[in-house]
Amino acid sequence: MLDSFAGSAGGVHGLNENYLYTIEALQQALSKLEANGFIALTRWIKLPPRDSLKLLATAIEALERSGIEDASRRLLLIRGLQTSTLLIKNAVIDAADIESLLAFCESRAFDAAYYPGMPPSQANRYNRLASAYFYEGAQALLGAERDQFLQDYKFSLHPASDDRPFHFHFVKWRTLGELLELRQRGGSALLETGYLTLVITLLLALALSLLLILLPLFLVNRNPESAATSIGFGKLRVLGYFGALGLGFLLIEISFLQKFILLLHHPLYAAAVVLSSFLVAAGLGSAFAQRFAGTLRAQRINAYAVLGIILLGSAYLLLLGPLLQWAGGWSLAARMLLSIILIAPLGFCMGMPFPLGLASISIGAAPLTPWAWGINGCASVVSAVLASLLAIHFGFNLVILIAMTCYLVAAASYPMATSGEARAVMIKTSIR
Asked: Which of 41, 116, 121, 354, by CA, is between 20 and 30 Å from 219?
């Protein structure tokens, strides 16, 4: 167990990614076992059951993906007063295994929650609950109505995966109202405070962003001189371009930060390597883009940069998972170097659209330049929160796809100045 009972019961780990409790992790662990070997996983007990049953559902999925037709013959589950232990065997559970399990439970006052062929009378004997919840949950997960049970259960028990490594997330929106009603009757521990805080943070960020984006626009429109300089320069294009860039950059950055934990094996290493690689590479891309800023070629260079982001992002979606697993056994220095090599080209391309668009605005509608900065900054704050919510519900791969869509929107919204005076400035800059 990697957390305290108080923290686990309070739901504070709901936003924490954990790659030890995913389908792929259990598959890999099973592949390392010798014949008749066991995997033992111990977790704190939560009532109503959440953590233990979700881990059982993950083990069932891992066994089935590994080609095991009858997962029910490979699993054992016991519980004590505060913990439960799931055993996964790399062979069929035999009579000797069950005999040993029952002898252990009897001598130490543990309850058997599941073993092959277990009768209901063996459940809930020592640490008695109002009902044999764990036995009933195990029977439902191993039965033909598993999908219906997962759908009807008041908490989310769907197995975590490397794409959605949120084992400790159990919230279902349809039961949120019921849980809030129970809060005053001792049900606060059923609410995942971290998840709810994230939702509230997103709502606040959206409200403040709308205020900080629309209020300056109102002031610009009231200024006749500012309005005159921006004739023919669509404000919606500015909003779409810099908003899409702010969303796309952070969505990709956060997604890759989480994915590279699999390669670097620790969030601190991943944060240091991934963030610095993105920022340095994006800075180099911005410096390179300055050569074309304010020229007639800027829009074409911007399109090339977006194309590079789409191609690299698509390639990483297909190949990054197997590549990270293949290189997982390398030395730390080698894994860090590989991370930098993989991130640098993508970061270089991501650093180019912002200065190109900003230079175009400074020529065609200079009063909108501070507004463009503000739009990008607000979108970046929103996307940092939005990325976590999207990943929890849909996975990091979808977050990357959304980010690439944002860059496509940006390419289509490129704020190209159209007035004769602005075009003349661009032509003069291009000649220089």
From this structure: 354
